[in-house]
Structure formats: C-alpha cells, structure tokens
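Attaching the record inline, Q. Sequence:
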Amino acid sequence: MDNMASLKDTLTASGGAESAGFLNDIIAQLWPNINVAGGKIIKDVVEPMLDQMLPGPLANLRFVKLDFGPTPIRFSNVDVHKTELEGIKLDMDLDWDGKCDFELDASMVPKIGIEHVKMKGRLSILLCPLTNVIPLIGAAQVAFINPPELSLDFTDAANIADFSLIDKTVRKVILNIISSMAVLPNRFLVKLDSSNDYFKTFQPHHGVLRLTVDNATEITGEKKSGAKRLLQKLVKDIPDCYCDVNVGAEGEWRTSTIKNKHDPQWNETHDFLVTDYEQRITIDVNDEDLGGDDDIGIATTTVKQLLLNGGSQTLTLSHKGQPLETKVTIHGKFFNFVGESNSISASSQNEGEICGLATVLIASVNGLNGQRDELKPSVKVTWGDKEFVTPVKSYSPGTDIFNPSFDTAFRFPITAEQLSNPHSFKLSLQNGTSEQGSVDIPFDSVTGADGMNREEEFDVGSGATIRARFSIRGLQLAE
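Structure, as predicted:
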C-alpha cells in the first residue's frame, strides 16, 4: 500500500456479513467432543499458567471437574476475505452463554465452583498458507481481535465473603491467559498439514499507528465518597488528569498528568503496532488523587474508524455505561511496514515513536543429542537488553524431541537510539535452564539481506541447528 487511497480500500474491503447457521450446526454436533478436547487443553496449558499467575493461596488451584455444559458456543456476522499473503481470513462474532460445571480445589482454600460463563468477542481465523495438496490449507490460526468480555458466576466458597476478590482475581487471570494465547498479536496455531512451513504461515503486523492524545474538555470528575467530597469542597479540588491508552492487547501507555485543569491539553504521542484494523483504541481518563485515583470515564473507537475519519476523532466519554459531557480528541497516522533498506531511519524521531520493527521467527531445532527423557529444549532470542524464550518442549509418545518444532514469533520495536548502534541478535539453545550453544547474527547482516530477511539453519554447535528467520521492516507513511 503506497498511499491513503489504497489504505482506504484495504480498510473498507469486506466480503459482506453472512450468517453462520451451518457452522453453528456443526459446532452443536461437535460440542461433546469439544467438551473433552477443551478440558484437556485447560488441564495441559491453562492449569500450569494459573500456578504462575494467581496470587498467594490461590496459586495452587487445580481443576477437579471440567464440564462445558450443554450449551455450545455460537457464531454470527461472518466476514470472509483474502489476506495479502494469499490466505483466507474469517472474522466472526463469538457468543457463549454456558451453563457449565467447573470446579477448582486447592490445599489452602475451599473449593471454588464456576456454574455460568458468559463470553463475547470478535474472533479472527486465518487459514494459510493455501496449497495444492489436500487438505489445501497448511494451518489455522485463531485469535480474538480484542480482549473478549467475560463474566463468571461462582458457587461454593466464592459465593460468600470473598466473592468480589475471587471474581476479580480469577477473571483477570483467565483474561490474561486468553490474551497471551489467543488475542492479537498472539494466535493459537493448529497445523492442518504436519509438514506445514511456519515461515509461510506467519502473518506479519500491518504497520504502526502513531496515536496522539490531544485534549479533553469539560472534565468534572466522578461522584466521590463522602470523605473525598468533603475534601474536594475544602481544597476546591480541580482534576489532575492523565490517560491510560490501549490498542487491542498491546502494552498500555500512560500520558503525563496535567494538574488542575478541567480542559487538559496533553498533545502526547505514542506508537502502537497494529495487527488488525478492527483493534480497539481505548482512552481511559483518570483523576490522579493521593487517596486513590478516580476514574473519570472511558472512550473507545477502532483503528479503522479513526483512519476512515481522516485520522482525527472527538470521542464522548462514558462512566459505568452512562455518557458524559466530557470529550477527548485524538489523532492518528498510519505507517506501513516496508522491506526496503532505506525505509528504516533514525531521523526525526520523537519520544514514544519507533522507526522500525525486527521480527524473529523460530521454526524448529534439529539434531539434538542425549537421552530423550532428559531433553527439555527451548530457544532464547536476545537483542540488546530484551530477551524472549520459546515454550520448553519435553518428550511424549509420538513426538520427535530430537527435532522439535516451536513455531514461535518474537518482535523487537526499533528506536532511533537502538538503530544508532545496533546490537547483534543472539540465538541460544537451552536445555532446561542450561545453555547448550549459541550463535550471534549481526544486525547489518539482516538489513543487508534481500528484502531485509535472513532465513537459514543457524549452527549452534554439537551438531544442532536452529531454523530461524530474521526480518527488519522500516516505516512508510500511508497517505
């Protein structure tokens, strides 16, 4: 996409909304099987994450019963179209109002039951690459475009004194787990062809949204408690406002705090990576307070809506579902990622802005040696002070632990400071916590490669190799 017209064409492209009656019929027939398979995924994948993410005595909660109940998930409003990389993209609304029977138990807390789950969200399913061999599709990748809405009804101990704490804690952890597994840019990968090449499956980010929070008007603050209201009268409190800003499930950004203003002017900018144009932009305006910050209100739009509106919107805030007089104005510019070496530059960069993106794909490790039950391989990727590690693999019947697949992507936003003296990338082969070998990949060996892509089997010693791809992309304004 070289100009704003082509960006507009992309934003408005749609196959047209369709019903999902046939799909819902299939899901209904498969629901008993989904019940069993879903329970296994929760035990194998989600339960270990609970141990790491739940606090204190809740950390050793374990599922002792998993029954999704008789009501299947339903889909609607399906939109089908092709992707730029010759795949098929299906977007659809997911709605589950499940009368389920989940039980969690732990040694230090009473049993916790969940009897009702409500979940809503917009799901994106990528089918790619397309092939000429049955099943014609290499893999399916499933993700929510934005974090889904989730509500839980508890039974047993959770219905008494600690309900609000347990509800907030468990729901937050579940949403964090969903986000880490299947909210963009994270996708849950299902190989349909065992020989599928991850490098052809991976879908890169669309580009960067350079978002500016300009100003807000008519901020009066939320209704305060008695003590705060009295203090407000005594000191004539005027809001000290800041904004927490989110785009999809990308990391949250906070503006500075503007003191003593009903109409604060921030004019501050931050860059967000964009994976889907339907990703939600959320502006949460707060009043900084020594006794605890007060929530003024929230405004939302999407990347698509902002760009189709010419890159500027004035949004109305709402508080607890009620619209306010308060408005916030935002501006946005969109930059495409491009692979030309002259597209990445450190010039004219301001705080909060990036000048490029490095993406590292780890497909597999080949040629491991040792006792299969003692092998716990993973790959660590390091660039400067940032490092990421793939999931650890272990032997199970039917797996090739000597040549494990990882199919994992890592991204490193590039700033002007990093570009002025770029570090080499480092791939490290781990067995448990022990490093077994490593290799350095100079930054300029990637920028100097064709299309700024370097893909090969990297030798890390002892006969082992890591199949990886390094890609660097610069920015080009879409206008």
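Residues 207-221+235-337 form a domain with the Immunoglobulin-like fold (CATH 2.60.40.150). The first helix runs from residue 4 to 12.

More tomorrow.
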